[in-house]
Amino acid sequence: MQQEPKISIIVPVYNTEKYLHRCIDSIIAQTFTDWECLLIDDGSTDESPNICDEYAKRDSRIKVFHTENDGVASARQLGTDNAKGTYSIHVDSDDWIETNMLEDMYDKAIKADADIVISDYFVDENNSPGRMNHNYLNDQCSALEVCKAIISNKMIGTLWNKLIRHNLYKKYKVSYIRGINYCEDVLILVQILLHPVKIVFLREAFYYYNKENPASITTNYTKETFEGRIKYIQELRKRLPLKEFKQECNDAEFCVKMEALYFGIIKIEDFGKIMPSSIYTILRANLTLKRKLLYSFYSIKG
Predict the structure, then answer these.
(1) Which terminus of the chain, N or C, has less C-beta within 10 A?
(2) Which option is the CATH number for 7-210: 3.30.499.10, 3.90.550.10, 3.80.10.10, 3.40.50.10420?
(3) In whole angstroms, what is the distance from residue 33 CA to residue 39 CA?
(4) How far apart are CA 153 and CA 140, in angstroms?
(5) Which one, of 258, 253, 299, lies nearest residue 280 by Cα?
(6) Is the distance from CB of 46 to CB of 76 less than 8 angstroms?
(7) Is the pLDDT of residue 300 over 50?
(8) Average pLDDT, the chain
């Protein structure tokens, strides 16, 4: 009987033929070899499906799932449902990773008997990677503190810099919400972090988040984009004890509306009660401040 892998790597793929070779090659090059890679082709219309199939023929650890396009949340769910690893991590198909990422993160998880290992990461823009760290959170912080930091945008809520004990998904009945394709990973983390899980930090950076993809929200922001963001906020409020997380939810809504304001989708009046009146007054007259606040938002979110 074949032994289950120690790590499952889940890679949602949608029309990323330009970057996909680099992504998969960085996985194959890992110094840690006891892994499986699940490539979830979410109905790509470019050469991505063929690229996935080629790699699966070359390496038996790579498994490909082809589906009709249903969004990244459904793709991540399919990967999560089929993952066999003791731990799992996500890698987005336009990004790439250092060769020692899996080895170092798994070693940290085993030595600390951790449920989640969180590492630093790089943001690659204009071929100039900048390192992002979590030095404002100490090694003794609780799952609840991490959850609050993510929701209020003080910490990135992605799954790609977090190695997670995979049975937590089943243990806590964690699932993606179909149709929520913005911060779908945050909603997953919230469902896990509301429980007493052990988190450790690895103060090293391995993951390269690619900000050069022209499909990013900074070049394709629409009214539908904003509506998707609002659905995320609504789902967030449903899943959190609002008495404890009221301020964090307001912070998250502020960032979403700040983004929409910058792109001209909403007006300043749409902020309502989530903003202090002093900020409200300043923003009405100060476009530069709007841009600075939005820049800060993007810096935090990666």
Answers:
(1) N
(2) 3.90.550.10
(3) 17
(4) 20
(5) 258
(6) no
(7) no
(8) 88
